[in-house]
Amino acid sequence: MPKLCINIDHIATIREARKGIEPDPIIGAKLAIEAGIDGITVHLREDRRHINDRDVLLLSSILNPQSSILFTLEMAATEEMLAMAKKIKPGLITLVPEKRQELTTEGGLDVISQQKYLTNYLQNLHTSNLQVSIFINPNKKQIQAAKEIGADYVEIHTGPYAENPCKEELQRVKESITFGRSMGLLTNAGHGLNYENTYQIAQIPGIEQLHIGHSIISKAMLIGIKEAVQEMKEIIIKNSPQAISA
Predict the structure, then answer these.
(1) Which of the following is catalytic: 10, 43, 50, 157?
(2) ω before 23 within 30° of 0 (cis)?
(3) 43 is catalytic
């Protein structure tokens, strides 16, 4: 059965809208762990638009190597992120492409065009005993290149399937998972998965982890709002002048 890893970037996005301290993604991570999550995923971006250094440092102290919860750090293949990865030593590094203007990751990493650079980069990560995954489009040539540069995992980009959940797109994901496994790679999947389209992906044999964030956080905001309103009303009622003077 695939493990479920929740991406908590979207909690931090709400926090950063006000540049305040809430909602705290660390609390969100702890609640997800209480709910039975298998892993916590964060994407530390160059511009720190959501997750920041404080978040990853705290998570690394909570989700240490002795923890049963997998801590995945998504990051661009830069020198700055290399230093951070070596400092916090997450359970898994996932290398992703990154553009400042993008709202979310728009596609898989083009391994073929930067194969020499990435080979050296992965060697550096492996020197620190870090496992590395490549977020990659469902493309056999890119998957083969990921194997050649020394990746431990590939995470198949399910965005095209999520946008157009047809048989053809699902088949591309299936074939990519099968091909990755045949190359000796461990295989994950993620991006754009929600409560309507995940079931078909979860049925594919050989997937180690599903990395899902936006849809879970979105649903949590809606189904959790009733309890939040009731709790705030209770505080107001209990502490109103009428209640205090009674």
Answers:
(1) 43
(2) yes
(3) yes
Looking at 10, 50, 157, 191, which residue is catalytic? 191
Q: Is 157 designated active site?
A: no
49, 13 in Cβ contact below 8 A?
yes
Whole-model pTM?
A: 0.91
Whether the CB-CB separation of 135 and 108 falls below 8 Å is answered with: yes
> Long-range contacts of range 164-168, CB-CB < 8 Å, 24 or more positions apart?
165/197, 165/200
**Phi and psi at residue 56, to the nearest 5°:** -70, -30
Catalytic residue among 74, 98, 169, 208: 74
Specify if 1 maps to a domain: no
Residue 196 placed within a domain: yes
pLDDT tier for residue 233 given thresholds of 50, 70 and 90: confident
The average confidence (pLDDT) of the chain is 92
Assess whether 126 carries a catalytic annotation.
no
Domain total in the chain: 1
The answer as to whether 47 is a domain residue is no
Which residue range is the domain that position 201 belongs to? 72-237
pLDDT recorded at residue 65? 76
CATH code: domain of residue 81: 3.20.20.70
